[in-house]
Amino acid sequence: MKKPKLLAIAITISLIVVMLTGCTTYQNFKAAFIEKDTAKKATITIGVFEPVTGADSKAAEAEIRGIQLAHKAYPNINGKIVDLVYSDNSSDMYAAETGIKNLISYKPSVILGSYGSVYSMVAGEYVEDAQIPSIAITNANPLVTRTCDYYYRVCYADANQGDLLGQYVSKTTKKKEAGVLIPKGNDVALARASFFTDRLEAESGDSDAIKVYEQYESGAESYGEQLDAIKESGVKYVFLPGDITDVVQIIKEARKMGLDVTFLGCNEWSTEDFRKQLGGAGNDKNIAYVTYIDPNLDANSAEINKETQKFLDAYHEKYGADAVPDENVALGYDAYIIAINAVAEAGDDPTGEQIKTVLDGQKTFEGVSGDIRFNSVGDPIKTAYISTLSDGDEILLYTIEPSL
């Protein structure tokens, strides 16, 4: 017999032996190559589009912290590992274009962010072309969702905040009337004031529900003329959209002259910067404003939902038992929760269109900031909170539940 034939027989016998007795060897091979390859595929990519560097990076940190807390709490979707992929838009609208293209190349199922409405608007064209649902966290500019069918948001839009404050006045006072004090040439403030006015007029059935409408020059040395007009009108509530610096001076001047009104403001009033500038001039008698979460959140309360409980436990473990949750951290947490729930609901390896169908399908998501679903343009229908200050601490005044 020739040597090649003998060699072939030997190899055949060896293979039979391996097949019969070498299961361990095969299992090792399977684990090392086949299952390892499968494990690589068993992931869901969530994109995080944020200004990690640049002028907006510090403000964006809260959103990122919220996403990371939620990711730690929920690292898997239907048994698949969630992989967070970050892309830095560098706080620059031109860099944002490069950043979103780079992020899309990783084929994320959902994109979260960006802080700064302008960066999300830059991204809008690209996420729509790629059909990747994206969730803005603190973008209040209405154009973020109105110019892109694939963008959603978990915060209130600018104009919605005026509507919420109009509801607050109409539901808490017998006299459904108020005043408006607005900076000249400020389109955002004008939009907010229009929604406030429309809501109050609709709720009261009175087209003259706004008894006084005054304008002022931003940065003025005094606002005495406008405040005198408000005093003469006799209203007890005045909607005050505008820049924080002007707002603080107006509230201080009104207090100094003994004006008995409550000024109403949007979410910017919930910031530490506002409280610092206001000093002791604001309290539950003269200010009320929109907040994204209940400032009275308490991990020991029997009334909070399980998601809020989980968030508070994670937040206090990370930042200390006495740490007060930053509402933008809560919104980042909620955005992640909504993303993974929508992916899970859409099925195995869902397309962006399938995930979008879930988000558009009137599904209610339980979050830290309340129960959330999206309307036809991607804005949230959710619980709203009107808060104030008491001895420097933020407290809840009123809760507005959505019609879910």
Report the span from N to C terminus.
85 Å
SSE run = HHEHEEHEHEHEHEHEHEHEHEHHHEEEEE
Task: List the strand order in the largest sheet.
Answer: 8-7-9-10-11-15-16
Shape: globular
Q: Any low-confidence stretches, pLDDT <50, length ≥5?
A: 1-40
Average pLDDT, all residues: 90
Please give the oligomerization state of what you see.
single chain
Overall tally of structural domains: 2
Task: Kindly identify the CATH topology of the largest domain.
Answer: Rossmann fold
Output the number of helix runs: 14
The proportion of residues in beta strands is 15-25%
* The CATH C-level class name of the largest domain: Alpha Beta
Radius of gyration: 27 Å
Walkthrough of the structure:
The structure is a single chain. This protein is an alpha/beta fold. The protein folds into 2 domains: 43-156 and 295-382, Response regulator (Rossmann fold, 3-Layer(aba) Sandwich); 159-291, Response regulator (Rossmann fold), CATH 3.40.50.2300. It contains 14 helices and 16 strands. The strands form 3 sheets. A 7-stranded mixed beta sheet has the order 8-7-9-10-11-15-16, sandwiched between helices. It is globular and about 65 Å long.
